């Protein structure tokens, strides 16, 4: 791979590289993906010395999202893990005019940019382990990609996986899920770009500073009400769910974090800040065992859908859980005795 062309990112202290992916298989022009890197800034360890780089993290966002969670990057950097995040094609920084936000007809199309991003991280940190981290839909995309890589005999250098509220199944009853899946299979052939009427809820309002939340993010890249859900995209997600439910073998240990409760409501209440407003957490618990290898599932009491955007005490708990898991998996952080 040629040397990457790192340019200033919209986040201070970060740089980005754009992967040109060629013609979009779904007919929306030229596709691209954007890899974001946290610049080393001289942060020291507790004793004042520099933190040696022992490994790297590659993070993947969810639907109606992009990478802006700098606290997460700081957490891993403080543990000696160089941090990278990938905005997938038609998402966040990578979406170009005229493209349908987040649309793909098959989640396997993401394999291209995931392979490129992993290759880029390896090029910058040869011989070091890579930890994959993902949120929501990203938490569905990465296990399927890892399973395909393992089946092709490509397992290195990925050493572990951390999933933050992964989307392992559709919300609603089994009957409703099955009926909708059948409808999507037919409708996706006729009108894949057709938007579905999906309740928006108040999740975005709980997060953004303009609505009294704690976080600042670009509302063009992450609208408070989210982007429209399209028929073809949701059909691709349902096919991916079916593949997951058949059982995978991702080849690495995984940590799965979820809230301890779901709360689906279109009106704000105090519970809106202490529950997953997007996914059914019982589905996460049910399907976690489908990943294969060693799987650790930890419910985080009072967590939001993005656990690392939860209230301060809750996310501090989540970071402690991740830290403990990393301590028990020294291969993931490059601290295993050689």
From TrEMBL:
InterPro entries annotated for this entry? AB_hydrolase_fold (IPR029058), Hydrolase_4 (IPR022742), MAG_DAG_Lipase (IPR051044)
What are the Serine aminopeptidase S33 domain coordinates in residue numbering? Answer: 53-266
Q: Which UniProt keywords apply?
A: Hydrolase
Q: Name one GO molecular function term.
A: hydrolase activity
What is this protein called in UniProt?
Alpha/beta fold hydrolase
Which organism is the protein's source? Answer: Streptomyces broussonetiae
